[in-house]
Amino acid sequence: MALWPFAALLPVSPLAWLYSLRSAWSAHQESSCSPPFKSLPPLARTSGIRTLVLAAQAGSVGLAYWLELLPLPWFQLAATLACSMLLCVFTAIRLRTSWPVTELEYAVQLACDLFIHSALLYFSGGSTNPFVSYYLVPLTIAAVTLPWRYSVILSGIALTMYTLLLAQFYPLQTFPIARENLQVYGMWLSFALAAAVITFFAARMAEELRRQEELRAIRREEGLRDQQLLAVATQAAGAAHELGTPLATMSVLLKEMRQDHHDPMLQDDLSVLQDQVKLCKETLQHLVRAAEANRRLAVEMQDVTDWLDEALNRWHLMRPEASYRFQRLGQGPVPRMAPPPDLTQALLNLLNNAADACPEGLQVTLDWDWENLTISIRDHGAGVPLAIAEQIGKPFFTTKGKGFGLGLFLSKASVTRAGGSVKLYSHEEGGTLTELRLPRVARGDEHE
Asked: How far, in whole angstroms, is CA 131 from its chain's centroid?
């Protein structure tokens, strides 16, 4: 029963103390990603902590009064707890409004906590109360959520109150030996709480710092990738503009050659050349239309099977020498999606890579579940060499001896922008398995 008198004065339970520091760190995370106190959660958490503390204090004081453990000024303690309750009610009403919470208001709320805590300490032994260390909790919250000037002001208030409590306080009317025992046990409990708080808070902070460092590394990588994409896009735009005139000239010359030469074998070759030139012109026109559609966000909802059939037919015109077998594995209603134009081009690039490895016997499968769509492309080529597996997908790296090494890089960038992923595996039976995974709710679905 030695700790019960001080239990009446305990300003916060162990759970509330730990929750205080966890909430402070969570508020710091939010404020580091957005302007300070643009939304209400930090103040709402502080109000929740205050309500929890008030319940623990009121219960402890009521129990100590009922058991008559110490002759304390019960009326003054009750009045102080009533002030804390009024502050909780006022904060709850204020949180229902749409006014933004300012840094000054949040600092005033923490200052009120310091004054209420000081009043409780004044009527329960002053600086000899071992739970005087609770001053550090509001100061820690201020340090991680408010600018330094508010932290300095609040630290000055806490130091001033602590100093005044050294000289002025309501003394405990008890025997010296009992008072010493109370203080020793109280200090032990205060130390245990402080050790738990520091361990918990430091571990969470270290974990969050590691997570933020990983996010910064990812953002740096994405920034570098975007710069590379911008450079490639700039060159592609210039090349597309310059190719228009040569293609038009080739189209006219091929038409005149078919009129001047009637050799059947030559006619067949000229026809193939005309088809290829026409395909090149259509590809350039498609680029212009796709860019315009992206600018206007003019995406159309369609079944994923229709989109895939259209892409496969277009690809087969480009690669007539390739053969493939399509299989649909998904069960139930066919998902609908609004694929952006660059996603279609990414699929064509992946199909071309598979055809370059081995144009015969490609296997294309479509599967889906409640969360993702999966398009798998398997070729029967040489597979992915382990020595260069990490290099595949980086810009200007190619294993084919031709091309620019941009197809897979651009494909991955487009699929990532749509919220999906592209992975390449060496198939156990030989060849390469390319897996294109997309979310069921892809970019553009919101226009449905």
From this structure: 39
Q: What span, in angstroms and rounded, lies between the C-alpha atoms of 146 and 110? A: 11
Please tell me the distance from the alpha carbon of residue 159 to that of residue 178, in angstroms, as a whole number: 28
Beta bridge partners of 425: 433
Among residues 145, 174, 203, the one where a domain terminates is 174
Report how far Cα 64 is from the mean position of its chain's Cα atoms. 48
Specify the DSSP element, H or E, that contains 425: strand 421-426
Q: DSSP of 2-42, one letter per residue?
A: TTHHHHTT-SS-HHHHHHHHHHHHHHHHHHHHSSTTSSSHH
Q: pLDDT for 245-264, tens place per residue?
A: 788 888 888 888 888 888 88
- Look up the domain containing 441 and give its range: 301-447
Say if 251 falls within a structural domain: no
Residues 6+ apart with CB under 8 A from 282: none
Give the C-alpha separation, 377 to 319, whole Å.
15
Whole-angstrom Cα Rg for the chain: 36
152-171 confidence digits (pLDDT tens): 999 999 999 999 998 888 87
Per the CB < 8 A criterion, the answer to whether 52 and 13 are in contact is yes
Domain boundary among 174, 191, 216: 174
| Residues listed for the chain | 448
SS3 371: coil
Token look-up 């009446």 returns 8
Answer whether residue 183 is part of any domain: no
